[in-house]
Each structure stands twice: as structure tokens, then as C-alpha cells.
Amino acid sequence: MTTGIVISLIGLIFTIISAVWKLSKTITECTDAVKNLTVRIDNMDTNNEKDHIEMWDKIEHTEEAVQDHETRLALLEHNH
Hints:
Blueprint: H1 3-79
């Protein structure tokens, strides 16, 4: 083998190693980003569940108050 071929092969090997290294780094960064997003989504789901429970409680309380007002109005209208 001539010196030129050896140098070319070494250059090719370093190019491949460099590309694999960059790809590995990118995959690691993407994996970390997905893990962080998963945690944030899980937290949002938990918070949304709590918020929905609070909203339903408020809706039920409002429905009860409206029903009480409707009953009072009906009694007032009936008495007059």
C-alpha cells in the first residue's frame, strides 16, 4: 500500500468516527429533551386533574345556588 492510500484510509476512519461521535451526542441531547418534556407533561396532567376537580366543585356549588334561587323565586311568585 502506498502512503497516499494509508493517509486516505486514516482520514476516512477519523471522518466516520467524528460523524458517529456527533450523532451520539445529538441522540443523547434528544433523549434528555424527551425525558424533560415527559416530566413536564406528567406534571401538567397532574395539575390539570386538580384544576378540573376544583372546577367541577365550583360548578356543583353554583348549580346548588341557582337551584336555591329558583326555589325562592317560585315560592315568591306562588305567594303573590
